[in-house]
Amino acid sequence: MLGAICGDIYGSTFESKVDLPDEIGMFSEGSDFTDDTILTVAVADALLNGGNYAQSFRDYFDLYPPGKYAYGRRFQIWASGMSSHGYGSYGNGSAMRVSPVIWVARDENEVIDLAKETAIVTHDHEEGVKGAQAIALSGFMALNGASKKDILDRIQSTFGYDIDGQVPNRDVFQVSCQETVPKAIKVFMDCYDFEQSMRKSVFMGRDTDTIACMVGTIMEPYLYGRFGIPFDLKNRVFEVLDQRLGDVVDDFISEFTKPRY
Questions:
Q1: What is the pTM of this model?
Q2: What pLDDT band is residue 261 in, cutting at 50, 70 and 90?
Q3: 168: alpha, beta or left, given left = phi > 0 and alpha = psi -120 to 50?
Q4: What is the pLDDT of residues 213-255, one digit of tens each?
Q5: Using CA atoms, how far apart are residues 94 and 96, in angstroms rounded to an integer?
Q6: Fewer CB within 10 A of the end CB, N or C, for the chain?
């Protein structure tokens, strides 16, 4: 989960920017968490405490209201109401917040089921569910020692994404799962270092915080048990998070982040 939050914070600096410098550092003074982190922590909170995903999303939306935090327009309407149903979204909001299920699931079937459960409360379109499942399954397989080739073959055959054919596209602001999830998985496939994956993420599209968040969701479990996320980046995450979010993240890590192999 730290990888996803780190990606969100890192990518927040470059959101919507068309032109980027050739050399990009890791963090700047303007780096901050966004709705990607808030809703990721909401999922973690629900898993920690046996809560309801929909209620958790609404609780965190109330704690971190729109204004400073740029939730999607349709999510804002949903979170401000009382509907228990999704709103047919296939946006990448379902995939950006799914990272906690990777650390809770005990097998591939469970990670796919949990990913769907976190998605359908808002993103109940087939593509919205599929995007969350693809990111979660990629991360789960990585956590449990699968090779990149095995992950690539499984994701392409199961979800029908063309991962190999993905190229950077900063001409338009793409936010759908079908447009951005394959790009995030492509970055993961091309990188073996966390910092490299973060830098590469921001060139793949203009929704930089969410793309980097999804990349971090897969890179962290891939590096877990190897050399991990650099300590300075982990420390930076907790410096940026407020006390409430930081405490949930810390509790979740203590409860669920245990060696798998």
A1: 0.95
A2: very low
A3: beta
A4: 999 999 999 999 777 888 989 999 999 999 999 999 999 999 9
A5: 6
A6: C
Task: List CB contacts of 113: < 8 A, sequence separation 6 or more.
Answer: none
Work out the burial of residue 109: count CB atoms within 10 Å of its CB; fewer than 13 is exposed, 13-18 middle, 19 or more buried.
Answer: exposed
Place of tokens 């087939």: 126
Check residue 251 and report its DSSP letter: H
| Token pair for 110 | 């469970």
- CA distances 194 to 124, 128, 213, 220, Å, are 31, 26, 12, 8
Tokens of 239: 């410096």
Beta bridge partners of 250: none
Cα–Cα distance list, 82 to 22, 69, 91, 121 (Å): 46, 21, 21, 12
Going 168 to 10 to 229 to 242, the CA torsion angle's sign is negative
DSSP per-residue string spanning 146-175: --HHHHHHHHHHHH----TT-----SS---
All domains of the chain in start order, with CATH: 2-15+32-256 (1.10.4080.10)
Query: Which amino acid, residue 134?
Result: A
184's enclosing H/E stretch is helix 177-190
